[in-house]
Structures are given as C-alpha cells and as structure tokens.
UniProtKB/TrEMBL annotation:
SUPFAM superfamilies: P-loop containing nucleoside triphosphate hydrolases. It comes from Paenibacillus lutrae. NCBIfam families: HelD_BACSU. This is AAA family ATPase. ATP binds at residues 233-240.
C-alpha cells in the first residue's frame, strides 16, 4: 500500500527524533561508562591498599576477612554497574543506524485510543524511563507484528491474553538513519520486505531475520512450553535462522535466570559454527556454546581409540564400492548400529551383565597376578542383585582400593623392596628424613631413627609402585569395556539372545568380522563410537552436565536415535530443540523427524511438540521448482515468490570443455554481482580435482573438513561440508550419471543443489544423472556442447 509523501516525511521526522534522543542519552551515558571502568581498574589495582591485613589473633583475622569482603563487594558492585551501563550503551549504539523496522498501531479492547508500537532489535525508553519509544522484538506486544495481519490480534502476557485490533502494520528499511523503504502491509510480514531482504547476496556469515520473521517461524522462536521441540523443515525454510533467533528470545525472556553459556548448539561441522557465529552478537546477545558431536566423542574416547570422524565415514560410503568387499556389510552395520534396535540390544546387555558375564582385567604386579579377574567377578556378583550395575562397579572400586591397601602393606616385606633401597637417590633419602623429623616433632616419645627410616623408605617405594594400580582403580579401568564391546561381535549366541525379539541384521556375520578387524587395530569406526560410549557409561554411570539448560541440535536428521538418547542423558536438566530435514539425510544412517520416531519418544508425547515448515526462502522459485522434483513428497515444498533464471544444465563429451564453460560461467556470475559462489563436489577427492582443474580461472579456495571458517569468494567444497550454508550461485561440478545414480545418493544431490540462492548450474561429461533426467524438462535449460 502506498504511503503519501507527507506521511513519509513524518516517519522520517520520527526517526530523526529518536536518533536525537539516542544521541543525547548516549552523551550522558558514555562518560559514566568510562568513569565506572576507571573505577573498576582502580579498585582492582589498589585492592590490597584498602584491606587491613592482620592475622595476629582470631579477632584480627575476622576483621581482615570482613575488610576483604567489603572491598570485594564494592568491586563487584562497580563491575555490575559497568556491565549494565555498557550493555545499555551498546544497545543504543546498535539502534542508531536502524532504530526499528516495524510499526503496528494497536487498539486494545476496551481502551480509548490506539498505541503506536515501533519494533526494533532492542527496547529504547524515553528519558522518563517509562515510555517505550522502541519495543524489543522479543517483548510480548511485538509478537503481534509477526503473528497477525491488520485486523483482530492478540498476544500473551504474564497477566493473561490481551486482545484488540491492529489498525496499521507498517514496515521500514532504515539505513544510517534514512528511511529507504516504507510500506503498509495487508499481510503478516509483507512479501515486499522479504523480497528485498532475500534478493541480497549471500555472505560468509549468516544474517539475522528479526525484521521478517514469518508466523510459523515465530512459533518456533517463542515456543516455551514443551521439553522437546522438533522442527522438520524443507531446505532453506529458515530452521537454523529460527533456532538462532530462538536462542536470543529465550535469553531475553529468561534474562534473570538463563545465561548464554547454559545453551549449547550442536552443529554439523566446525565450519558451520563459524558461519552462524555472528548472528547473536548482531542481536546484542552473547554467543551460546557451539560444538559438534564428534568433538564430544573425541573428548571422551580420543585417548583410547583412533576414532573415525563422520566425514571419513561418508567418504567411504560415497566412494566406488567396486574394490571394497566389506562395503555391503559395513553399510548394513552403519544402519543397524544407529538403530533403536541396537540401542535396545545394549540395554539388554546391561541387564545381562548385572547377572553374569562381566569382564574385568587382572591386576598384575611385577609379573604376577595380584588380584585376578576371577576374584573380581566373585566379589562383583556377591553384591545384592538389585543393586544397579554402575553402583556395583563403584562398590567393586571401593573393595579394590581396600584390597590394594592390604596388599601394599604386605608387599613392603618383599625382597625386591630391600634391594631397591640400595638404589635410592639422595633426594628420596632426604624426603624420608624430613618426614621422619616431622613425625618425631609430633610425637614426643622418640624413635629408633635407622629402623624407622628404613620402614618409611620401604613404604614410599611400594606406594610409588602401587600408584598406577590405584589410579587405574579410581578411573574404573578394571572394567574391560573394549572386551565387553567386542564380545557382542564375538559371541553369536549372546548377540542373538540380546537382540530378541528383533532380528539381527542380515549380514551380521560379516558385520562382526568387519567390526572386530577394526577394533583389533584400536580403530573405532564412527558408527561404533556412540554405542561404545553408551555401553561404557551404562556400566560406569552416565556423565551428566546439569548446568546446560537448553540444547539445540541442527541437521538433526544426521543423528541416530542412539545419539539422541545420549544427549538426553548427558543434559538431564535441558530442554531440547531439534531441527532437521529428512530429505537432506546424507549419512547412511538417518533419523526421520516425522511420525512416531525414537526422537519423538525421547521425552514422551506430552512433552513434545512438532512444527513443520513447508516454505522455502533461500532459493528462487525456479530453483525450488527444479529441486523439489527430486523428492517424493517435494510438492509440499512451497517456493517463495522470488524469481531468477532457471537452473542451467550443461553436458559435453569431454570434461575439459566443461571446465572452460565453468570458468566462463563464474566470470559471468561475477559480472552480475554474485560474489559468493560454491563449486560443490561429491567427495574430498573430487573437490581436489575440481580445484586443480579450475585453478587460475578464478580466486579459488579449497574447503576441507578442517578449514576453520568461510571466506568470501569461489569455494570448492564437498557437499557434506556445505550442509547448512548457502551461496549466491552453486555450480555442481559433476552431475553425471556415473557420479550420482544410486538411490542413496539422491539426498546428497538434493542437498548440494539446494545450497543455491539465485543461480544453479549443473555440469556433466557424458550421460546426466537420472536425478535430473527424471525431472520435468521445463524446470531447467539444457545445453549440449559438441566438440
Ligand atoms: N523470515 C525470514 N526472513 C528473511 N530471510 C529468511 C527468513 N527465513 C529464512 N530466511 C533466509 O533463508 C535462508 C535459509 O535459511 P536457513 O539457513 O535458516 O534455512 P534452513 O532451513 O536451516 O536450511 P537448510 O536446512 O537447507 O540448511 C537464509 O538466507 C535465511 O536468512
């Protein structure tokens, strides 16, 4: 709806007024921030000058303590005030160029007039400290802006539901204090603004979407009811964006109780971490913790095993299977080991181990068995059967420590100890002598120094030698977890009984051979790492983190039920937000987020809410129409009405012709202003090849799994590392049938193509992938180069 020049002028005048007020308040505030900072520095520097330290008697100690406490309180009060004012000033500085992006005029039922509510990234109050000149987008009233078109609307407050009428809904684009775009909208968030925002180029970092949050995304952001929120959303539907704004919302809503470091985001890879790391700071919030599941596995098992990472696994899965006799068994194994069936098998194994079959390691000392595994077994199974497995392990640990104490004392009499006495160095003698002196000071009676010294030295020698046994006991290393895990693959009868009533996978024999082979080389395949750790913790007791209150899992389709079960146990006090797209499940195991799944069962029906996003914002209409054709249920995906060229598919008999074509396309894209370009490949090897082929034609960067952050430019990248990110233009390096024809590769192909915002190019030397030839030919343009 058009806005009269007069109204535009009035709105600009208001922007100017708000900026004036911001500047004025900042002028008052900033010197105070500076002063407080100086005071904090000063107090820290002279902390001890103000404290009278006197420890002569109890009263003096108390006085010293009180004076220290007082000084510490002054310091922490100044630090708090400084932090508070600094945050306030930062917020105002952030508002200066763009004070707000939306306005609604809301007439509450039963009230006289309507209120103008201007919505921005944070609230700004007039000098009276009461009048809201700008409302933070996370305030209850601001939800009207996202949830309703003009007309009746309502919002939730702690005091109850407020109903009324939205008389006007206006949107702004304000840059450096100038209104560049202004319109009234009859819809939720007008498509004009979204068009404008989405037509921009992709950057090396994700952007905030607060000005254009869509209603269904707002449901994700503000959902605060259930323990578990599951979001299944099409590629580019804003899952990651919604998750990040959700973090900002929760930090605001629960600002007195929730801190950023109590929230953890599990990301698909470290690159993604850097891609999303600027969103929260842009919104004036601190970043939450970010990690990957692999990091956690590595942290827990990295010292014992050479753990395969998920990218090595996917490389294996994607490579040509012709020369790999293990291939079908491994794929079968990957699926099975990620399944709820295998989880149940391990849980039954835990119950079984409570009754029999535990495996302990002998304690050996100087070539002989000190405590045998049989003794441990007898002790272990002598405990009451009702005691839980990890508690029995703790009891056994305590028993072992007691046994070691007795054995250690006996050992002092052994001949080898006497012999060792001769080899002690001066330092050790000196130590024994001073200990003896100390003892004698405590004990008036006096000693025969020589005998005492010898006894003490012997005790020291044995104690030192028993040290590793004690530490092994404290770390529960007497439980042979690797052997227990191996046993599952060695004892066919046992596995069969534990799996019952579910069947073991068809290729169980081969899976066992493969797994045992890898374990014998101290290698832990990625598919075994979580089950192994789960078994270990189920025996030894689960580690828990009770500080974290919220866990977000992005690209959740790539997590197994096992991993979810694990996260639930690891963070017992946390709520969970799980975001994914089943159509982008690129790993051989995958989790569906639709229907009754192990993920949905994690916290039970009552505690779980599910939201499905159908609309895709990232790609142009043409690209969505092309890519959704690759999926069975693709027609559910709605493109956002943003136009661009149709995807371009080029075939040629010779790869060299395609490389020339690609170089030309990159140059043309640059000329059109598309600076972020992704050349997406299937594997790391293909990426290396593409990089070398195209070297010199553009400013290329090869992205590997250990590349720490994205940079602008032409990136050559394997599809599995491009997960979650986007480019102005995507060039699919090899879309041939030879490269993509297996059904298991469909989702990888789809994921690669859906990374494109504005332009998509596919190249194929020889016949094209059936994923393209099966599409409606009107959804793309085909070019054939003939040489
Ligand atoms: N409401 C919105 N306003 C503006 N831009 C949006 C909105 N929602 C999504 N986008 C944009 O759409 C693109 C895709 O968003 P995002 O990466 O969050 O989607 P996703 O569902 O996580 O995608 P994928 O699963 O394909 O990785 C981003 O550029 C994001 O900024």
């Amino acid at each position: 709806m058009s806005i009269s020049p007069e109204e535009w002028k009035q709105e600009q005048a208001r922007v100017d007024l708000i900026r004036d007020k911001l500047t004025r308040q900042l002028l008052q505030l900033e010197p105070n921030v500076g002063q407080l900072k100086d005071q904090v520095v000063d107090i820290r520097k002279h902390f001890w000058d103000e404290v009278t330290v006197n420890l002569a008697n109890d009263d003096d100690v108390l006085e010293t303590f009180l004076s220290m406490k007082q000084q510490a309180e002054i310091l922490s009060e100044r630090e708090r005030s400084h932090r508070h004012l600094k945050k306030l000033a930062d917020r105002m500085n952030r508002l200066l160029p763009t004070p707000y992006f939306g306005r609604i005029d809301f007439k509450e039922d039963g009230s006289g007039g309507s209120e103008r509510v201007y919505v921005g990234v944070s609230s700004f109050l007039d000098e009276d400290g009461e009048t809201f000149l700008v409302y933070d987008w996370r305030t209850p009233i601001a939800s009207l802006y996202y949830d309703f078109p003009p007309g009746p609307g309502e919002y939730d407050t702690p005091g109850g539901l407020i109903r009324g009428d939205i008389e006007l809904k206006r949107q702004f684009i304000i840059r450096n204090g100038r209104i560049e775009f202004l319109f009234d909208t009859g819809m939720m968030i007008g498509d004009e603004l979204l068009q404008e925002v989405l037509s921009k180029g992709a950057g090396s970092q994700m952007k905030t979407i607060v000005a254009t949050i869509q209603k269904e995304q707002n449901r994700i952001i503000r959902n605060d009811r259930t323990r578990m929120l599951i979001v299944q959303g099409a590629a580019g539907s804003g899952k990651t964006s919604a998750a990040l704004q959700r973090v900002a919302y929760l930090l605001y809503k629960h600002r007195t109780t929730l801190k950023a470091d109590q929230m953890v985001l599990f990301s698909p890879n470290p690159l993604f971490n850097s891609y999303v790391s600027t969103v929260l700071p842009e919104l004036g919030e601190e970043n939450m913790q970010q990690t990957t599941f692999q990091d956690y596995l590595h942290h827990r098992l990295g010292r014992k095993f050479d753990i395969e990472d998920p990218f090595e696994q996917i490389e294996y899965v994607l490579q040509d299977e012709a020369n790999k006799p293990d291939y079908p068994a491994r794929i079968d194994g990957i699926r099975y080991k990620a399944s709820a069936d295998f989880l149940r098998l391990i849980q039954r194994y835990r119950d079984h181990l409570g009754q029999e079959d535990m495996i302990f390691r002998d304690y050996r000392f100087r070539g002989r068995v000190l405590i045998s595994h049989e003794q441990m077994l007898a002790q272990f199974y002598s405990y009451d059967p009702s005691i839980r497995l990890p508690n029995k392990v703790v009891l056994l640990k305590e028993w072992l420590l007691r046994e070691l104490k007795v054995l250690e004392q006996e050992e002092r009499k052994a001949d080898w100890v006497r012999e060792e006495l001769n080899y002690l160095d001066n330092e050790q003698y000196h130590q024994a002598y001073s200990r003896l002196r100390n003892r004698q000071q405590d004990d008036e009676a006096g000693f025969d120094d020589a005998d005492q010294e010898e006894e003490l030295l012997k005790a020291m020698i044995v104690k030192e030698k028993f040290k590793p046994l004690r530490s092994r006991t404290r770390n529960l290393r007497f439980v042979d977890v690797p052997a227990l895990y191996r046993k599952l693959f060695e004892d066919r009868g046992l596995a069969q009984r534990l799996a019952d009533p579910e069947p073991l996978p068809r290729m169980w024999e081969e899976i066992c051979a493969y797994t045992l082979g890898r374990l014998s080389r101290s290698e832990l395949p990625y598919e075994d790492a979580t089950p192994y750790l789960y078994l270990q913790e189920t025996i030894e007791g689960f580690r828990t983190n009770t500080i974290v209150r919220h866990v977000l899992v992005d690209e959740a389709q790539d997590y197994s039920p096992f991993q979810f079960e694990f996260l639930k146990r690891l963070f017992p006090r946390a709520r969970m937000t799980v975001l994914g797209d089943f159509n982008q499940a690129i790993f051989a195991h995958s989790t569906t987020l639709q229907g009754q799944t192990p993920v949905a069962d994690l916290y039970g029906e009552e505690e779980t809410e599910r939201i499905v996003l159908h609309r895709s914002y990232r790609s142009t209409k043409e690209i969505v129409e092309f890519t959704r054709g690759m999926l069975q249920d693709g027609m559910d995906i709605e493109p956002f009405q943003r136009e661009g060229g149709k995807p371009q598919v080029t075939t040629a008999p010779m790869p060299a012709d395609l490389v020339r074509r690609m170089a030309g396309d990159i140059a043309a894209l640059h000329a059109e202003g598309h600076l972020s370009i992704g050349i997406i490949c299937k594997t790391a090897a293909e990426s290396e090849l593409a990089y070398n082929e195209l070297l010199g034609t553009a400013d290329l960067r090869l992205i590997r799994k250990d590349t720490p952050s994205f940079e602008k430019g032409v990136l050559v990248i394997p599809a599995y590392l491009a997960k979650g990110v986007e480019f102005d233009a995507v060039l699919l390096y090899d879309a041939s049938a030879a490269n993509y024809s297996r059904e298991t590769q469909r989702k990888l192909f789809y994921t690669a193509c859906t990374r494109a915002m504005h332009r998509l190019y596919l190249y194929s030397a020889g016949p094209l992938s059936p994923f393209v030839t099966a599409l409606d030919p009107s959804t793309y343009e085909l070019h054939s180069i003939h040489t």
